[in-house]
Amino acid sequence: MPKRWTEEEIKILKRHYRKKGAQYVAKFVEHSADTVMNKAAELGIRYNGIRPWSEWEDRYLRSHINDWKNASIARTLKRTIRSVTGRVERLNLTGEKEPEWTGKEIEYLQKLYPDHNYSLKLISEIINRSENAVLLKAIKMGLSRSNKHKWNKREHNYLLKNAGKKTYKQIAEHLGMESYQVAHYAGKIGIKVRDRGTKWTEEEKKFIKRNYGKMSIQEIATKLNRSVNAVKNTASRMGAASSGKRPWRKKEEEYLKKHYAKISINEISENLKRSKKAIVTKAFKLGLSKKRVKRSK
Asked: Cα 23 to the chain's mean position, in Å?
């Protein structure tokens, strides 16, 4: 449970925050600099100094400017929307746009989006677009997901009870849903569920530095028991300049074409040292839609 602010601490905050900022105030109160900033915002107190932008913040901004709104980026970086907007203009990022959707991508989206067998995450990997870009395009095209889940009272109450205590994934697993369904419904009823995650160890960071670009992001996430987004964000802060996707070799593609309908995905995954999701995605792109042969027991 968060530690409460004492009257004396609030006095210190009011006295020094405007001129000296959160780091200074944090030295004299039993709260972190982030907590000081949040409390100052709650009290309507603004810091008059200028906080310089760091390299990792600029990298983060470049990575997400086309996917997230400035308000969302501002919350993540603990900056004002005005600060983010100004930095975007200074870095000349306002003119950047995502490439136009191709006819093939639109065709994939129309085919896959209504099918709940394909998660939003998997669709984004197949089309090679961000999940947010896929969702926005689908909405713009008027596409909808089939078999839309209707929340009952028990599920609704469970979400209310555990919001803030459990992550989307944990709640979804308990209710037998996908994470995005919980996220959508939570947003619809005005609930925020945030996964703060555990602190990254030096060993984990070294693993990312050593393997980012050699292994897929999904494989790294699985190895470290982290989410894909957590790996991406940490890699971005560390300056790992790579898409994190291991390119397919011609021999691998030939192997996939030859064996996709003959042996199980698990076997192909083990032989090629790739995730099952990577196998399915590549097979789809290669047009390997032939029905798989069921092996007799």
From this structure: 29
Residue 277, in any domain of the structure? yes
**Overall average pLDDT of the 146-153 stretch:** 71
* Burial class for 294, CB neighbours closer than 10 Å (0-12, 13-18, 19+): exposed
State the Cα–Cα distance between residues 258 and 224, nearest whole angstrom.
Answer: 32
Inside any domain, residue 146: no
Q: What is the pLDDT of residues 118-130, one digit of tens each?
A: 777 788 888 888 7
pLDDT digits over 36-59, tens only? 887 887 888 877 776 777 788 888
Total structural domains in the chain?
6
**What pLDDT shows up at residue 172?**
81
What separation in angstroms does the CA of 1 have from each of 41, 114, 170?
Answer: 20, 42, 20
DSSP type of residue 117: T
Range of 73's domain? 55-90
Would you say 192 and 186 are in contact if contact means Cβ atoms under 8 Å apart?
yes
Distances (CA, A) of 265 to 206, 260, 262, 277: 31, 7, 9, 9
Q: Which of 22-31, 73-82, 189-198, 207-216 is predicted most confidently?
A: 22-31
CA atoms within 13 A on the CB side of 188: 10
d(CA 65, CA 72): 10
Contact in structure between 188 and 155 (CB atoms under 8 Å): no
- Name the residue with higher pLDDT: 241 or 27: 27
Contact between residue 291 and residue 235 where contact means Cβ atoms under 8 Å apart: no
pLDDT tops 70 at residue 292: no
User: Would you say residue 98 lies in a domain?
Assistant: no
Q: 35 and 15: one domain?
A: yes
Q: Based on the number of CB atoms within 10 Å of its own CB, is 78 exposed (0-12), middle (13-18) or buried (19 or more)?
A: middle
Smallest Cα–Cα separation from 119: which of 277, 270, 292, 290? Answer: 277
